[in-house]
Structure formats: C-alpha cells, structure tokens
C-alpha cells in the first residue's frame, strides 16, 4: 500500500506542471502588438511606412510610420484619416514594397 501515496503524489506533481504550462500559454489579445498606443494624425513629414496585418497574436491592423526629421517611428490609429490613406494605397499597389514611395509622394492629408 505504500505505492499508492507515491503514485498519487507523482500524479499531482505532473498535473500541477501541466496546469502551469497551460496557464503560461493563454492567449491575451493585443499582448504582442508592436504598437502599444496610437495617434490619429501627425503633421510631420513621413519618410516610410509599414502596415502589419492582423495576426493571431495581435487583433488589429498596425500602421507604423517613420518620420523624415529624426527617424522616429509612430503608430497611427487604423481608423484615422491618414492611416486609412496608407492602407488604401498599400492595397492599390498590391502590397509591393518597391512601390511604397508612390504612396508617400501623394498627399495624405
């Protein structure tokens, strides 16, 4: 009968380990987005932009612009006017990185 308490203890330890692993693997929407916060608009000249589609780890489309003056990166709110301009232009050029400058040359006011 000494075997039963040891087997029970081992089972509980394994069960505890599985629970800890499952708890650490929980999906938290938005937890891995590159943009912790967004702005609606920027008056500064934009040198480059990046659009990151929704993924399983970030539930929003992210628009990251690089400013010409200092190279700083800002995140635009995807429902903002300037962000919508970049999204529409990006789709128009079929998501071709080589043609991104066409979107930057147009007025995104």
Explain the overall architecture:
One of its GO terms (cellular component) is extracellular space. Pfam families: IL8 (PF00048). Residues 1-25 form the signal peptide. It comes from Oncorhynchus mykiss. This is Chemokine interleukin-8-like domain-containing protein. It is a single chain. This protein is α+β, with helices and mostly antiparallel strands and 109 residues long. 37% of the residues lie in helices and 16% in strands. The chain contains three helices and three strands. The chain has a three-stranded antiparallel β-sheet. Strand 2 and strand 3 (73-76) form a beta hairpin. The chain is elongated, with a radius of gyration of 23 Å. The model is unreliable at 26-30 (pLDDT under 50).
Largest sheet: 3 strands, antiparallel
- List SSEs in N-to-C order: HEEEHH
Indicate the structural class: alpha+beta
Low-confidence stretches: 26-30
Overall pLDDT score = 82
Spatial shape: elongated
Q: How far do the termini sit from each other?
A: 79 Å
The percent range for helix content is 25-40%
Side-by-side strand order of the widest sheet: 1-2-3
| Oligomer description | single chain
* CA-atom Rg in angstroms: 23 Å
Report the sheet-strand fraction.
15-25%
- Secondary structure: number of strands: 3
Q: How many separate helices?
A: 3
Quick description:
With 109 residues, the chain is an alpha+beta fold. The protein has helices at residues 3-24, 81-92, 100-105, and strands at residues 46-52, 62-67, 73-76. It has a 3-stranded antiparallel sheet with strand order 1-2-3.
